[in-house]
Structure formats: C-alpha cells, structure tokens
Amino acid sequence: MRRGLVLNLIGNVVFFLTSYGIHYYLGSTMPAASYGIVGTIMTVLDFEYMFLSNGARQSLAKEISMRRFDVGDVIRKSLLFQLLLILAFFCINFFGAPVFSYILNDPTLAIYFRIAAFLVPANGLFVLLLGLSDGIQRFSTSALLSTIYPIAKLSVIPLIIFFFQKDPVAGMEVGYLLALIFSIGLGCILMFRYRKELKSFSSRVIPFRTIAHNTLSFSIFFIMVSLVLSIDTLIVKSVVKPASMAGYYTGAVNFGKLSYYLMTAFFTVILPVVAKAVGQNDVHGAVKQVKQFILLVLSFILPIPIVISASSASLLISFYHPAYAVAGTALSFLSLSSFFMGMTVMLNMVHTSFSSNRFSDALSICSLVIVVPIFILAAKFGGITHIALASMICTGIAMVISYLILARKTGNIITRNAIIAIVSNAILWVVVRLLFHVFNIEGLGIMALIYVVIYGLYITIMLATHVVVIPKDLLNMIRKRGGRKNSEEAVH
C-alpha cells in the first residue's frame, strides 16, 4: 500500500513538472488575454474530467476491492454506464460549442470546444483502466500510467512549434488527445498481465442501478469539487475586466491546484485500502490507516501550499513576468483552498467506506447551490482576489464539516502528531513570509533552490523529532534498488 502511495506521488510530481513545463512555454510565448483562452478551455476540460474520471474510477475500484459482486459483471456494466456519460458530454461539447462561446463572451472559443469533445471519450476510457488497477490494488500500474500520460503530453510543445504555430490552443488539445490514446494502448497491455486477478469470488451480479448510483454519487461529489476548483476561472473570464485578468488568474490557478493534485495520490489509494479493511470487518485497522494517511498529508503535502501561499507574488513574477504579481494575493488564498478541497475529498472517500454516499450527496447539492452565486458576487465586486478568498472560505468550511461527520463514525482521527504538524505548518508560513518580505527574491532558478532547501529542512526536522516516520516500504525499495545497482556495477 505504502509503495503504491509513494509511486502515485512520484507520478503526480511528474504530472506537475510536465504540466508546468507546458504552461511555462504557453505563458511565456502568448499574451495574457490569449493565455486566458487556454485557461478557459482547460477549465472546462478539468470540469468534465472530474465528472468522468473520479466517478467511474472510484466506483469501480470500490466494488472490485470489496468483492461483493461478480467482477466481470461489475466491469461490463461500469463500461456501459461510462459510455453513456461519455456520449452525453461529447454532445454537450460538440453541439453546445456556440452556446459556451456566447456565455463566455468570446466567439473564437466555439472551435476549441468542438475539438475538446474528442478528448472526452479518450479520457473516459483511460480512467476505467486506472479504476481496474486500483481495484485489484496494483497501484504501481496506475502510478506508471499516471506517469506516462503527462510525459506524453509534452508532445504539445513540438506540435505547437512545427504544426500549430498560428493556433497553439488547438495544438494543445491535439497533443493531449494523442497522449491519451497512447496511454490507453499501454494500459491495455499492462492490465492483460493481471487478467487472472480480475476473476470473481462471487456469483452475484451487480444491479445496473447500483453501478449508476455509485458512479453518479461519486461524480456528483466531484462536480462539487470541480465547481469550486474550476468555475472561478470561467467566472473571471466572463465577469472581470480587462480580459488580461483571466490570464493572470489562470497563472495563479495553475500553482494553486498543486496541492490538490498531489493529494489525488492519497485518495486514489485510501479508498480501496479502507474499503477492503471494512469489507473484512477490520474497522480498527481501517481507522488506523486513516490516521496514518492524515498524518502523512499534513507532514509531506501541507508544507507545499504553505510555502507557495507565503511567497505567491515572487513565484508568479519568476515563473511568468512582473505583470502577474497582481494575482499574488489570489494565489495565496487558492493554494490553501486547493489543500482544503483535497482534504474534503479524502475525508469523504473514507466516509463512503464506513457508510453510504448520502452525506457526500448532500454536501455536493448544498455546495452547488451556494458556491456559484458567492463566486459571481465576489468576482463582480472584488475581482480575482475576492473570488480566491471566497474559494478558500468555502473549501475550509466543507473540510471542517466533512471531518465532523466522519468523526461520528470513526472517533477522533487527528492524532497528537497531526496537531504538531498543523502548528509546525503555521510557523512555516510565518517564517517564509518574513523571508520573502525582507529579501527581494526573484528568478526561477533561485526560487526553485530556496523551495527545495526550505522543504528539505522542514521534512528533516519532522523526521528528526519523530513527528512522522518514513514508510518502511519506501526504505526497503531504496535498499533493493541500491543493492541491484551495486550488483550491476560489480558485473561491469
């Protein structure tokens, strides 16, 4: 389990590095207004990916892990329902493109929405492969696929340079589509090796309505997640003037979402692991796993948005150019907002293993009703800073409520060491803020070096004081690789 978690984290890190490489290229070569169009298209795609990806993936992984029904039947019906969802979103994108461009006050967007329609089926099938590997707890396979896909996305840059110089947005979409097709082919080859593990231990068939309910429950919940993480960009594009503000806000969003996407590695692993323990009636073991996950998140993930929040303006200036400093305060709020949302997702994933999806459904519906008007008002009267602040407040409230509901099922899951980690992160924010306030630190290279040093010192302190312990699986993996390397060197 821990090895799978580490590999998934590595995959997510590669995802970020390649994504930021693409955005660095686009942001440095395109005007802010044009970059805002990229942000708008990517936001819509992210919204649909959240719906298609997490609903099917989490539902499939949960049912395969629990082994309540015939696995083959679960896979077939999950595929059928996913195809229905894919068809719906394809039609919305392709035939609704003029409507999207009208709402967003930009007629040039229509063609890009039509191209984006073809990304929907590719993504929908790709995530089913990830759900299969998660369900049989082959986390290393899903981690490999999650690593290969972003690397393949780098094809965007040569496509834009050589074939789409006059239309880089279209080049970006074509590059993403080719990356998905390649990853699907590789995933099918890898999963063929584990076909025996997909054999069922039950003769019961799963009702199609159960598949639909599970998938939609997860999907509706992730619509709420996507709404909070993505719709603010669309609102900024539609409401805030001048048009360049959408580009500046896109820059802030790109870094703000970092912690959320890192945390996907945790709730990708935590759901099948906890569901399996609960399915075996090992409630104590399940709760213990949850406590360990939370401590790892607070110790290894939270410092990242904390450092970004405390040095936001310098980061945007260094990565893009000085004009992006206007979004510095927005990034400070968004980096924490995304972490709060990641925690909300993880807590809800755990809750579905102990209980039904009703709380997640209720939280989603309430959020859908409340968040949109709050964001619109915040953007209209306060611009990008106020909408980012509204996002942080909304996700913070959702996180606290989710924790309180889960604690009713599991008891207190915040350990003493977890509290120490929270306090340590608060101190870290103050220290980093003072550092960047006193010294005028700019430049991508020096920023990267300072980030590495700060994070390294922080983790060293956490390990030295035994607040958190490096997972044994990771140490064993390092030892094995080190031994293998020494053996190869001895042979040569």
TrEMBL record:
InterPro entries, per the entry: Poly_Biosynth_Transport, Polysacc_synth
Transmembrane segments: 5-26, 32-52, 83-104, 110-132, 144-164, 176-194, 215-240, 260-281, 293-317, 323-350, 362-381, 387-406, 418-436, 448-471
Keywords: Cell membrane, Membrane, Transmembrane, Transmembrane helix
Broad class of the protein's primary localization: membrane
Subcellular location: Cell membrane
A Pfam family reported for this protein in Swiss-Prot or TrEMBL: Polysacc_synt
Superkingdom of the organism of origin: Bacteria
GO cellular component, one term: plasma membrane
Membrane topology: Multi-pass membrane protein
Protein name per UniProt: Polysaccharide biosynthesis protein
Native source species: Bifidobacterium aquikefiri
